[in-house]
Recover the amino acids of this structure.
């Protein structure tokens, strides 16, 4: 089984990308996480551009989502909302509505921010947007506040609680996968 991870941050040392890497460590054998890293290359959505061939990064995103059993998106919060480039990518993915690879795709939304609340507003909006686009957004969340203090130099969590919380969120996502074969790594 395969899960696609999408970080809503373009930043090299992104805490949200670190969250995806931490998730990779927790997944059981038989479940692979592939992190899609072409977000920066997605052009601004323009309905006129839907008439021609899809831009390369959009085609890559569509193919990547279509090829997996579930997606997990780690979003930062910009001005109490979803970063524009991530929202733009979801807009592309949502079209055409009849063939969107998001249709019924299990989706976990998590997030990290340097503020106190862990991108909860951005996460709430992203859940709404993904569900509107047809994804089956799971009832789980992980809000990593004060992100500056939550990871060590290697990108690992500094406290076990966070690892457990991420594990619980992944459990919920895994129960949505077609065949649940194995438990999370302890
Ligand atoms: C344009 C902008 C707006 C931001 N607005 C918020 C915000 O509303 N709430 C918050 O907690 N952090 C906010 N931040 C701080 C981000 O949480 C911080 O930059 C975080 O590290 C971004 O995630 P990343 O590490 O994955 O890139 C903002 C940052 C930027 C660049």
């Amino acid at each position: 089984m395969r899960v696609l991870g999408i970080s809503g941050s373009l930043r090299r040392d992104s805490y949200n990308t670190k969250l995806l890497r931490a998730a990779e460590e927790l997944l059981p054998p038989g479940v692979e996480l592939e992190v899609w890293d072409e977000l920066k290359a997605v052009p601004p959505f323009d309905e006129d551009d839907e008439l021609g061939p899809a831009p390369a990064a959009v085609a890559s995103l569509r193919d990547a989502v279509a090829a997996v059993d579930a997606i997990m998106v780690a979003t930062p919060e910009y001005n109490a909302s979803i970063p524009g480039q991530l929202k733009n990518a979801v807009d592309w993915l949502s079209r055409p509505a009849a063939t969107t690879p998001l249709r019924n795709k299990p989706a976990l939304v998590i997030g990290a921010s340097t503020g106190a609340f862990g991108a909860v507003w951005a996460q709430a909006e992203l859940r709404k947007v993904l569900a509107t686009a047809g994804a089956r957004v799971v009832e789980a969340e992980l809000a990593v506040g004060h992100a500056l203090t939550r990871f060590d130099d290697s990108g690992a969590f500094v406290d076990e609680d966070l690892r457990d919380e991420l594990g619980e969120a992944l459990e919920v996502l895994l129960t949505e996968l077609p065949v649940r074969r194995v438990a999370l790594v302890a």
About this structure: The helical segments are 15-26, 56-66, 84-93, 120-132, 160-174.
